Amino acid sequence: MPTRLIAFSDDMDGLRKVPDNIPNKEMVAEHLGKPLTQVPDPFGDHKSFGHHNNAQLRSFLDTFNFDYEFLSATECYTSGRFDKTLLKVLDHYDAIRDVILPTLGPERRATYSPFLPISPTTGKVLQVPIVDRDLASGSIVYKDPDTGRLTQVPVTRGHCKLQWKADWAMRWAALGVDYEMAGKDLIDSVRLSGHICRILGAQQPEGFNYELFLDENGEKISKSRGNGLTIEEWLTYASPESLALYMFQSPRKAKRLYFDVIPRAVDEYVGHLAAYPKEEQAAKLMNPVWHIHSGEPPAAELPISFALLLNLASASNSEDREVLWGFIRRYAPDATPKAHPLLDQLVGYAIRYFHAFVKPNKHYRPPSANERAALLDLDARLAKLPNGVLAEEIQAEVYAVGKEHGFEPLREWFAALYEVLLGQTQGPRFGSFVELYGIAETRALIAKALAGELVTAS
Fold first, then answer.
1. Is the C-alpha dihedral spanning 365, 366, 367, 372 positive or negative?
2. Is 248:292 a contact under the CB 8 Å cutoff?
3. Residue 1 pLDDT
4. Does residue 415 have a pLDDT over 60?
5. Are 21 and 42 in contact (CB under 8 A)?
6. What Å distances lie between residue 25 and 20, 94, 179, CA to CA?
7. How far apart are CA 255 and CA 257, in angstroms?
8. Distance between the two ends of the chain, CA-based, in angstroms?
9. What does the alpha-carbon distance between residue 217 and residue 254 come to, in Å, rounded to a whole number?
């Protein structure tokens, strides 16, 4: 049987709170408690808030060219696709409650039911005790919280939805799901839903548990706090492939997901891509790009790294693609946007990343007396280098200056170069940067730093 990827949207869930990051909050607040597909779209682009969220999800999946079948909970419930399995849930009502009740507190235990009726009068998803069940008609009876009257509704055709652990199990059984991933925090929920799935006469899917991401401070990312980096933000500043690589590596380990991990992820992706054609077949199968590109990674070996592009933008303070391409062509004369579409894409990402994260945080400091002397020495040495000098020769001169001026450890010299000349705490291999940026341009940068112009400008 061919692999069938299902993207399932829980758009029948009741809206519990108004999100902070949406317009028209007052309008949305009027519909609290209703299924998302019954809440007006605050953005005004779709039939409902649920449809808006579904469109966002599909747009994200399409970015990665996934081949998937999209299913809406609302459509599956209301069309009758889940009816057969919902009646099984009703038939095994007590057994399912026995699985869930020991995990609940006394207050929730008193009202728990796997079925959440949709109020015929308000349209809200209700968490109410079930007073009676009628297996013959496939219905439940509950006391309406507004009127106090007993109300009977079918469990089929969208008149009810299931509480999420029971809903998870029902979906697995109804759709024949045989593999599902979940975060490490849901291990107990997977176990409970698996038990319910077996009660319904289906096999629990094989699973994979992964760690959740951490924010810049190493704390768990929280939807309510909004800390951390969103996938949309990553894709603004780097390619989907770089994100795929970041996800590919150590999937069971909690990883820091913040803006400063992006440049390294991009360069690691480019490095794997460049290495692929030179590898033996066995090594190719272990290369992440083989998996990212479904066995057909594109040929690409770039003349410079993403980190160097960022530092070019930083040193030149330029957000002009042509300016950056001018530096690139000096280093690699045959390089053009047409010949290197991936590099041109990275130029665009570098400009956006520089504008959002590097430029606002640039802070130049004046050199100390020893650093000033070292910079004057470096300037004199750069002036004597011939045209076309390579990065290694430049790097050797930089090392020599640092040693002769007593920087110990030597990384203090490089930290000074980055902080005084680039206005940042970290930077590229300096010889490679000078080769790309240019001897004359680097000397001009040193002159500005010595004159205090960089500190004044910042």
1. positive
2. yes
3. 47
4. yes
5. no
6. 8, 40, 38
7. 6
8. 62
9. 13
Question: CB of 123 within 8 A of CB of 50?
Answer: no
Helix (H, G, I), strand (E, B) or coil at 390: coil
Identity (one letter) of the amino acid at 22?
Answer: I
- Type of residue at 297: P
Q: 362-389 burial, b for 16+ CB within 10 Å, e for fewer?
A: eebeebeeebeebbebbbeebeeeeeeb
pLDDT tens sequence across 349-383: 999 999 998 888 889 999 999 999 999 999 999 99
168-197 b/e (C-beta count within 10 Å ≥ 16 → b):
bbbbbbbbebeebeeeeebeeebebbbbbb
d(CA 254, CA 220): 9
The label of the residue with tokens 């997977």 reads: 190
| Contact assessment for residue 126 and residue 112, using Cβ atoms and an 8 Å cutoff | no
Give the C-alpha separation, 99 to 150, whole Å.
Answer: 27
At 91, the amino acid letter reads D
CB 37 within 8 A of CB 74: yes
- In the block, tokens 């020599």 appear at 400
Q: Which amino acid would we find at residue 448?
A: K
